[in-house]
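Hey all, quick one. A colleague (J.T.) asked me to put the zinc ion job into the tracker so the inputs and the structure tokens live in one place instead of scattered across chat threads. No bug as far as I know, just bookkeeping. Sequence used:
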Amino acid sequence: MTEYTARQRISRSEVAHVADLARLSLTDQELDAFTNQLAAVLDHAADLEALDLTDVEPMIHPLPVHNVLRPDVVGETSDRNEVLSCAPSIENEQFRVPPVLGESP
Amino acid sequence: MSPSKEITARGLAAEVRSGVRSARSVLEEHLSVIDASEKEIHAFNLVLIEDARAAADVVDAQVAAGDDPGPLAGVPVALKDNICTRGVPTTCSSRILEGWRPPYNATVVDRLVAAGAVVVGKTNLDEFGMGSSTENSAFGVTRNPLDLRKVPGGSSGGSAAAVAAGFTPLALGSDTGGSIRQPAALCGVVGVKPTYGVVSRYGLVAFASSLDQIGPISRTVADSALMLEVIGGHDRRDSTSIPVPAPDLTSVLDRGVEGLRIGIIEELSGDGLEGIAVDVKARLGEAAAALEAAGATVAATSVPSTVYGLSAYYVVAPAEASSNLARYDGVRFGLRIDAPNAGDMNIATRTAGFGDEVKRRIMLGTYALSAGYYDAYYGKSQKVRTLIMNDFARAYEEFDILLSPTAPTTAFPIGEKTSDPMAMYLNDVCTISSNLAGHPSMSVPFGLGNDGMPIGIQVLAPATDEVTMFRVAAVLESTAPAGHPAIGGVA
Amino acid sequence: MSTNATTEIVPGWETVIGLEVHAELATATKLFSGAPNRFGGEPNTNIDPVSLGLPGSLPVLNEKAVELAIRVGLALHCRVQRSVFSRKNYFYPDMPKDFQISQYDLPINGEGWLELADGRRVGIERAHLEEDTGKSTHVGGGGRIHEADYSLVDYNRAGVPLIEIVGAPDLRSPEDARAYVSELRSILVAIGASDGKMEEGSMRVDCNVSVRALGETELGTRCEIKNINSLRSLGRAIVYEARRQVDLVTSGGRVEQQTRHWDEAEGSTHKLRSKEEAYDYRYFPEPDLVPVEPSDEWIESIRAALPMLPRERRRRLADEAKIETAAAALTVERGMDDLAVEAIGLGADPVRVLVHLENNLADGIGSLSAGPFAALIAMEVDGNLTSTQTKTVLAVLVADGGNPAEVATELGFEAMEAEELEVIVDSLIAEHPQDWLAFTSGDDKERKKKAGFFVGQIMKVTGGQADGRAVNELLARRADA
Ligand SMILES: [Mg+2]
Ligand SMILES: [Zn+2]
């Protein structure tokens, strides 16, 4: 595969930061490999840079649909036991997790 | 005996409905084919022998009671293993979903069952749909039934292989950038990506929500039409579902192409396209000639911005995926690798549970959405989608249908592209634009390559015009060159 | 409350406050699924695949939540507009999908304003729809998050519709902040959008505080304070934070932009994270939902169905009673303005109406209705009942209803004849000549004092039956004679 040694579109430290945001941990070796691979994809995407898209609206949906609304009527709820039976850890009918560091943003 | 192209869902359902054959006997025959060659092909993550027998018996009981089980009475179907089935493991071919049994059925599953279909198993895929060869599965590769050294394509490789091998006449795949059409082409079967919103995504485990669409894989065009009629139509559980009934397709298949204007997309078939094989181009030319002979007018045309499709796709799809796959955090379901605190538990779980390709795309998408890069990547790519839509709209003023190859080459050897993600991504170059625009497209087998492996022609249509797309597909099917590979057999 | 623009917590310094209020909307179901929106209940019972964020589940927007959000927008004079949902990405165990569906660059309600009881307007920057999270209980370490052994998560609340109302930094004191929250709560309750219960967490307040020297026009660096659970803590947190920031600046330091946590027990705030550590939420439009474009007809029909808002109620009562708008606030807050306006409309004296509502009806109006209330006040004004007797009759009307004249008769409150009163006054003047002299020839102060003495004596003699006003008039007449 292509080796990117010159100026890369994404640096090793950026990949490390992104892994952090995505809650993934990478070995040094993986970090090198992923940096090269992501740089190759971003290099390919560089053809977009030349495009002048100032007056183009971004597409949010393939189809021009809007106002899809549901009446406020109570529907079926899940069977708690069925759901909890697939949980990695439970206690008192709740999902148990290791201690949480830091508060919700 | 292997089922051949003559064994169709339509034919089987007719026999079961009329009581000529029992659903149970149809099932057992298919189970014996699975038994004979599943070991070497590995199309399935899970074969539901007992559940399938029970379902077939229900169909037979309905027939015995004088009730009509529906248009797919007793037809064995295979489901891509990213489609939720209540109480039955749904793995997405990922370790991270270990132990998860959805508490609900996908809408398509309910509709198939209501139509009398018998679910036989869950098929292998590239983990979460991310790949073009079904090599990125936590449970091993699926082999192409026509040549076991080759990939079946992906990500719906298990479903395409199951149909090609005669395991089931019908299968469901999902298509985010070509994941139904490309494996269908590589396995010599029909694969359809409907208009975005025609088939409910409720219960399809999301890869890239604005691109994903469920669709049929079958050995004949008519069977795909039949299956799409069953699974399509509005679903209030999916906000992006189009509020219209499923199109009537089976009745239009014999209408021919007389008077239709068909354009060949230069950018996806001409000399400018990197890596397109000579034999693929040759078959496309023959397909055009066949349609012309059948009364259509055929001309080359340009859809210029499709050349940016691949770049836009490999930003948009990973971006959405990075968010869709955040929920695999070890808290509520699936794998958990314990750690002293919740954050570290998330990291340990995700690091152990996801394969390399999934990690690659999550990181790519996270990067494309992150502060400072959003406009350059995600924002720009969504604008490119608008350009592609506009270009297609212009092309469809002149043409009813557009044509291109489905994939640049025939099936490639297992292992050939696994170390170079970009080379793998280039496989999707012809199929991606339909997803970006939300338009329907399908792959129809049309002759063989120099290696004796099948080649697929892609038929593209404007949004919601599945009817015209199927008419063209039916003509291509009936005019395809002789010397078709031994579909249903194992080479 | 004070109408001063500035209430100085630290002399010479101005505190600038902007509030972000989250209120749970009073729907039957969640924002994106049919699971019940219900407070309390057995853990993990109000759940379905959508509220748990299970793979393959998809959101479908609750029409009622949109309607309530539009009601809020209209009540706050916001521009109601085309809106798009976005994903706010961050990992947290109580967040089922590890992203929150919220609105980002295109909120359903744009800029508007809220009018405080004293007539000042506070800017509203936006009011958008979003989903609530589940709830974690921290086990061990005394239930505190940083010392817990582990946590348990209940997703009953996950997906409950919230409206987040972002106020402009227009508030200047703890009193301002409390007045703003009270007014906002009154509005939300009045329009049926939310029950506004801070104690149940259905209304939550985050507070942005900055300080600047008096006269300075640039805004200082702000800190956002989280975990404020009552109006009382809101005021305490603002005072603490303002002092902390002024101390920092006056001791040569600099305020760092931070998110801080209010600790109720310690009475202080502590740093959660700095601006640099802020989350990168990677917002992008939610592909599983389509834009909401409320039609003019829909908006107008919602507007037409809106009840009268506290501001309009205050204005109506003020006009009716010919008083300052601020003076109408308490009666409106107690929800008694309809009674007041109706009674005044029936000819009751506005001043007496408000005096009784404010002083004697704090526990509610019970069976009291406008007709009997107006009749009672007429009896009082005409001197047929003393104010004490009026209060007694009023209590009966509140408890049992009825006709005030009949109640007064049953209680034996016969109006005292004028001649009877004259006889008693004249004999008292004769009995206390020194006091009478002081009354007739003293200065204003002395005259007032002696008037009080004579009224007191007369009340003693008549057992409270005499009308104080009539006695005063009589004394004046005798003195002038
Ligand atoms: Mg906020
Ligand atoms: Zn919020």
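Adding what we noticed when we looked at it: Residues 12-49 of chain A form a domain with the Histone, subunit A fold (CATH 1.10.20). Strands of chain A lie at 69-70, 90-91, 94-97.
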